[in-house]
Design brief:
InterPro entries: IS30-like_HTH, Transposase-Integrase. It holds the Pfam family HTH_38. This protein is an all-alpha fold. 49% of the residues lie in helices and 0% in strands. It has nine helices and no strands. The longest helix is centred in the N-terminal third of the chain and has 14 residues.
């Protein structure tokens, strides 16, 4: 069906219970409710007794959901750590990395930190105030920032025999070893 996943509500569980008591299969119930038949079959197996009970299934599902790691991640301790790190101008990536090293029990990914930042309304404390990074559109993005820049095609013939990085490092350390003058051709 390719629908977006959402939890079954108590009302839907009552529908499943009623249709199941009438003898409908999981596939037929799923078609009537416009849900995946796998979801309905899993839901019918949820009750330990042979008879499906909507209230028992809903209580069980709610208990599992509230005990899940995803639900318990946003503890006050984590929110306080994120707030303190944001005041020190750390990015969410840096905060997640520091938490993983300093407090392994609070290990979270940067997306969790971002969700805390947005939920608490701290977007303005981020470096770009929560706006997406916009890459430069010009193909010569940083070229105009380097003064007297010369393209690699225009380098002097004397440099071509310096193939290794080691020789280039020597050249930059001791510029008198090989000197040439170049002027930008713009």
């Amino acid at each position: 069906m390719n629908n977006q996943y959402k939890q079954l509500t108590l009302k839907e569980r009552y529908q499943i219970e009623g249709l199941n008591e009438l003898g409908f299969s999981a596939r037929v119930i799923a078609t009537k409710m416009e849900r995946s038949n796998k979801t309905i079959a899993r839901e019918l197996r949820r009750c330990l007794n042979s008879k499906y009970c909507a209230e028992t299934a809903h209580t069980h599902a709610t208990m599992i959901r509230t005990q899940a790691r995803k639900f318990t991640k946003r503890r006050q301790e984590l929110i306080d750590k994120v707030e303190g790190s944001l005041k020190l101008s750390f990015t969410p990536e840096q905060i997640a990395g520091r938490l993983a090293r300093e407090i392994p029990t609070l290990k979270v990914c940067c997306n969790t930190v971002y969700s805390i930042v947005f939920a608490q309304g701290w977007r303005h404390q981020l470096a770009r105030q929560g706006k997406r990074y916009k890459p430069r559109k010009d193909t010569m993005a940083g070229a105009h920032l380097i003064p007297n820049r010369v393209d690699i095609d225009q380098r002097p013939k004397e440099v071509e025999h310096l193939g290794s990085d080691e020789n280039l490092i020597r050249l930059t350390r001791f510029p008198t070893a090989l000197s040439w003058r170049h002027s930008p051709t713009r």
